[in-house]
């Protein structure tokens, strides 16, 4: 019971209501004491009227009047003259005097609490104003035992009523909380457990139904998260299946490319100058394809292999990339390519992976310009700064759309070209991270796009 939300809410409600009742109890008991003493003053005034009507009354009648008023004597001040109206023997000295003529509230509360804790029967003097202005002052002497018993009886009745109110209020709140909060929360928990049992089943995604605003917001956030997770799991499954298929295809493709490599070796012996000039580039392309298929066969971890860092001439790699892309340019669009790479710049990188990075960036730029139907220029520049090699790939294309910018390096989501898978930039970013560097989008817009590659000169970034 105490471990449940509704149970704890019930206990806290009872405690808080009782605390509120105690705060009400203290001034209430002080008010009861004041009323009790004022009633004794009123009784004493009524009893004194008999003597005022007849100056001579018998001792027995006087005693009966004082007994009915529950006082020992009555003093009435009329016309500035203080007169002892009724009297009887006082059993003990007067303990304290209390003036009820406009007393402060805190004084009344303090006197009431002191009376409750004092168990001794005391004789006190009480001073007040006569009823209906029947004099200037009335004063009585009385015993406190009856007052304390009346206060205790009143306090017990207040506490009993407070307990009933607390239990009744707590019960109403208990059932209200169960209906408005606990049951919906349990429903959300059951939906989460059902979804966790089979997160790929879209039918188990929570359907928001709560009428409480905060709970509905929580349900909507949970439903959104489950929807995204289900989509991610399905995409992961498709990627796993795709990886298996690619591994099989790569195995056979490697055998085919190996045979093609043997034929290329024979082509190099041709006497035709054009063939001899193109043969090295064909050899390099087939060699890269063989290396790529061999890397794909190590797809078990679904990540790129670590780079084999060597010192490579950057200008040679850039030249190979641009030559390959020039062959892919059609006759319909006028696209020019240029480079501004220092001839002697040597970078520390994996030559094959750096080629793939630059090839992806240049190919994306070429395809963007070709798709726009207008001519353009692609340039690759490099320089050194702050202990790093910086390579910039710029184009004068139409720029990246907003959706592509939001998911720029996310596989299958950052494609800027219709029909594109969005893998080129994701692969480039992953390969450069393996070198300890990073790929960033410097700027994009109608005037063109610039990507920046930063490779650290040290052992690690």
TrEMBL record:
One Pfam match, given by its short name, reads HisKA
The keyword Plastid belongs to this UniProt entry's keyword annotation: no
Q: Which domain of life is it from?
A: Bacteria
Domain (Histidine kinase) ranges: 248-459
Alphabetic keyword roster = ATP-binding, Coiled coil, Kinase, Membrane, Nucleotide-binding, Phosphoprotein, Transferase, Transmembrane, Transmembrane helix, Two-component regulatory system
- Do you know which SUPFAM superfamilies this protein is assigned to? ATPase domain of HSP90 chaperone/DNA topoisomerase II/histidine kinase (SSF55874), Homodimeric domain of signal transducing histidine kinase (SSF47384)
> What protein does this entry describe?
histidine kinase
From which lineage does this chain's organism come? Answer: Bacteria, Pseudomonadati, Pseudomonadota, Alphaproteobacteria, Rhodobacterales
